[in-house]
Amino acid sequence: MEKIGWGRFYGIGTGPGDPGLLTLRAAEVLRRVEVIFAAAARDNQSFSGGVVSALGGCRAERRSLPFTMAKNMADREEQWCRNAAAVTRELRQGRDCAFVTIGDPLLYSTFTYLMREVAELLPGVEIETVPGIMAFQDLAARFNLPTVEDRESLVIVPAWGRDDRFREKLAAADTVVLMKTSSDRAGLLAELEAAGFKGEIIYGARLGQEQETLCRGGGEIMAVEEQYLSLVIAKRSPERQAVGEKQKLKAKEA
Ligand SMILES: C[S@@+](CC[C@H](N)C(=O)[O-])C[C@H]1O[C@@H](n2cnc3c(N)ncnc32)[C@H](O)[C@@H]1O
Question: Which of 35, 39, 102, 238 is most buried as measured by Cβ atoms within 10 A of its Cβ?
Fold first, then answer.
């Protein structure tokens, strides 16, 4: 297969939402590529696409790709193949393409599925990942909360699969990042308590975006509305505290 003249495929992390957290490398690539793909979000508003719009100076054609969250794996795989075919059509014509994703492209991201399919359809194609600031890093920063120190361990785990494996992971962690905390926060807080987490617990929803929410402590967390785009960081030890007040995006801009 002829690969000379193919475009390069970039996976770009846009950071959690604040365009100020986009890296210089990501900005440089986004302003250079010819096509920028983004996942069409549930509400048809792509979070990572919003960061690209705010960046400015991009000449690329903008395209959105549907990603189904169907329980049936065959349906999901079919969708990944269709999306990869859309990307490879452009790459074969020598157009450099980027797929933008919220946070980092290699952490619970649609980019990983797309990248594998693209590599299968176009063996030897050049693929480059441009890392992005992960949502949990932004959340920790807002509270000046050290994620881990000394010999502590950090575990990142989705909050929805609360089974024995989930509990084993909690038991092993000094700090836990719980992603996808959109439902049953009472159950989640009970799990943390049962696993012996007695330290700080912070929550962020829609970080860097409109309607951003920041909370500290179980009481505050229970009082806010549930959001799809939300996460929790909890510390086992009560000695490892956050320093100072929470720093909302508004406060930074003022
Ligand atoms: C599909 S994962 C994407 C993770 C992303 N690749 C990262 O590096 O952070 C979606 C989950 O990431 C978290 N997340 C991503 N961006 C967020 C934001 N701006 N505010 C709050 N949570 C966010 C939430 O837990 C959400 O359910």
Answer: 102
